[in-house]
Design goal:
Elements lengths: L22 H16 L6 H18 L2 H36 L1
């Protein structure tokens, strides 16, 4: 029916034992749900990281001045971690290619 109505059908998002989750787990679940609804390619770590960086940039544009410094620090750290991850993946690819030869 969703296809017939040209709806964007997403796989099931399971929320298990919500009442028993800690506040930290509930906050993570909220972020995962927001990403689930707004991010096109789900599942890949790099896509999740890119989505989070984009969300921080959007928040930075509307954040009060006192929060902008904190958001900038978080954004810089995430981008640095992403760059390091990209380097590690490139090195891993080189090692795998050398093993294949």
């Amino acid at each position: 029916m969703a296809n017939k109505l040209k709806m964007n059908y997403l796989p099931t998002f399971v929320v298990d034992q919500f009442g028993y989750q800690s506040e930290t787990e509930k906050a993570k679940l909220l972020i995962d749900y927001q990403r689930y609804l707004t991010q096109a390619p789900l599942g890949h770590f790099k896509a999740k990281s890119d989505w989070l960086i984009e969300q921080l940039r959007l928040q930075l544009a509307v954040a009060p001045a006192e929060q902008q410094q904190q958001l900038n620090l978080i954004l810089t750290q995430l981008q640095s971690n992403q760059d390091e991850l990209d380097d590690l993946q490139a090195n891993l690819k080189l090692v795998q290619d050398m093993e294949d030869d």
